[in-house]
## 1
Amino acid sequence: SQQGEEDPQALSIQEGENATMNCSYKTSINNLQWYRQNSGRGLVHLILIRSNEREKHSGRLRVTLDTSKKSSSLLITASRAADTASYFCATERGAQKLVFGQGTRLTINP
Amino acid sequence: GAVVSQHPSWVICKSGTSVKIECRSLDFQATTMFWYRQFPKQSLMLMATSNEGSKATYEQGVEKDKFLINHASLTLSTLTVTSAHPEDSSFYICSASQEPTGELFFGEGSRLTVL
């Protein structure tokens, strides 16, 4: 079963604005990953944050992790139309088996 | 980065027929591959773990006789949907674990439509 929950389920913002997506999980983790999926396509790995990390940056992406609250957030700064996609958080249920959150559908309006 | 190829990208078949989907790691060896299923506007659900040279491990609730998995080489895993029915229509995505790092790479997915 999926253990991750994400909010919002859908987010629509103007180009140039920042987008924040949240993810909650239920069990203890070693790491948490974020993926992007363009419509009808496969997954692209964005960033991995380990359980002993609180924040990680990659380009316009900023991920935070709060293990005490079992939650993570993904911030995309200065959004672009090309950022329109679904974003999923994922945790490992042992041996590389990923459990995905429900995802956030992000729409960037030009 | 490493590339995982799925074929076909999309397939339409009649109810009752079987459909085979291939997942290939193009430039690396993958002892382990994973098959996921995704319904429209929903998340990915792990179906099974494909192990080279041994039987696949299926998740609870996934019928192994319905979804046959074969991982005959270090670069190829196949998923066969047997006697497909309209409720099997879905987006099937594979991922491959690159040796020795264990980094996962996803295929582009295969959309199955059963009429």
## 2
Amino acid sequence: EVQLVESGGGLIQPGGSLRLSCAASGFTFSRKYMSWVRQAPGKGLEWVSAIYSAGSTYYADSVKGRFTISRDNSKNTLYIQMNTLRVEDTAVYYCARLSEKATALDYWGQGTLVTVSS
Amino acid sequence: EIVLTQSPGTLSLSPGETATLSCRASQSVSSSFLAWYQQKPGQAPRLLIYGASNRATGIPDRFSGSGSGTDFTLTISRLEPEDFAVYYCQQYGGSPLFTFGPGTKVDIK
């Protein structure tokens, strides 16, 4: 059974940093592309970042230069380092696995809430 | 950037009825790159349809997707109580890598 479990969320002041983790199990993590998607309270879904198995990374313009996605295949874990956080980064952050053809997100974690507030 | 528009914003229906949800793209999208998700309150999204018309694993056949170019449709036949949720369309490709529509809420009439 595919499982994705996020951790690391919490309350952080504007300008602060936070690192989220996503522990994966039930599939060969190293072979799969992975992504982060966020959802602000009461709002829709916003894609944040993706990392391919070979290490190529992609970012939404809203986080480029502030967020860094990475993976540790030996630990089956996906990360996102979030720096210079803004109030508008407040959201539930979901870890998701890209589908076989990498055109959809076929499994999602339950999410971790990041609140940026003074 | 391709912008996705979903209509209606809210659809009020009764169990047993058919829901027809629309997703329109600002420019042509390959059918291979169009997906639909269901999200219930407090839960993560769930992939329903990929490649515009292919049901994801474990998705009942009352869910079907169709369309091409700029117009795509998600149809939910014989609505069950558990189908009342928010539905998002998503396209892949370009920059940003993934784009989501604003969602359609299907609620109980």
## 3
Amino acid sequence: DVKVTQSSRYLVKRTGEKVFLECVQDMDHENMFWYRQDPGLGLRLIYFSYDVKMKEKGDIPEGYSVSREKKERFSLILESASTNQTSMYLCASSRQGARSNQPQHFGDGTRLSIL
Amino acid sequence: QKEVEQDPGPLSVPEGAIVSLNCTYSNSAFQYFMWYRQYSRKGPELLMYTYSSGNKEDGRFTAQVDKSSKYISLFIRDSQPSDSATYLCAMNTGNQFYFGTGTSLTVIP
């Protein structure tokens, strides 16, 4: 079974702090993704990466950055946390297909609260 | 217009009922079609995926894709209280994935 592990299930941080969310996958997937999920808004893509050291902006990258130094690990960084970044953060990974990426597999999420 | 439209519900059914969950989409280039189940305070779990039009069955679950109508469905037979969750449809073309906002389902014992 594919396993995507997010380092924290719940996290509470203060406004202005630099926050690191870590994600590790064990299936040698090329692609990794960070989403945030908010009620009524669904999943919104923040960043994705299709290879080590490669990254692409998603729909809502402002206030976030990412790092992918190893294939299995993808980190999301909140440069200066703000209260509007309180959300559920989901990491996902998928295999690169010949014409299209194969379905994504998700971790259990990090529920982040910024006070 | 959103790429993927999904009725948020909530949907409430008695145990044993047949459940039908649906999504419509606008982009004819979509290739993979997926259904995810998400329990409260957990991440989405891949339930079904299909690459083509037609039906795909897995136990009590059947995924149906109608590319001509740009419509996908998930049927749950003999629904159980453990099926109570939010169901998200998803589809992709190339590197882009698009998700519905999810339908909340409650199966009442």
## 4
Amino acid sequence: DAKTTQPTSMDCAEGRAANLPCNHSTISGNEYVYWYRQIHSQGPQYIIHGLKNNETNEMASLIITEDRKSSTLILPHATLRDTAVYYCIVRPEGGGSQGNLIFGKGTKLSVKP
Amino acid sequence: DAGVTQSPTHLIKTRGQHVTLRCSPISGHKSVSWYQQVLGQGPQFIFQYYEKEERGRGNFPDRFSARQFPNYSSELNVNALLLGDSALYLCASSGGQGMGNQPQHFGDGTRLSIL
């Protein structure tokens, strides 16, 4: 089972920041927080990941709380093309079966004009 | 640079048949994983291969098998197809052994429909 809890759906106005929350209260010290998104009929797209520190790349920012029990993915200026299902995943450091991704149901983000 | 490529994109089979799905990883990636995504659900892990060896297996029956070739491409085989095997089959590649700090990158999948 997925170790994360996300809201089922969220709306965001085009041009505004989209803040997607994720709870992972049972996360272990060697587990990373990953975010993927899936646009209809496409494969999941990697967005960002982090262990303890906040991370930023060209797509998004990841804010991880100090106790690591929750995180927020921030899309700074949402566009209509950001409409997708967003998955928050915790992933152990080990490889093999341990390193596979366990997807929950994600958050359906709808960006509206 | 080319991403993960999968073939075919769509496939229709009947119950009892077998199917082979193919995946080419991103250049330089040695680890390939397979996932099954049924409608309305998130992807579910099937297999992981690294250096031609199976390194991980999810909770799928023995009808599902896979292999990895010396060029790191991979095949997923499913025998005795059931209606419930209808799904999007996704391949993902990553560098190294697929460790937790190495992102997996997905192809757009093969849509398999069983009649």
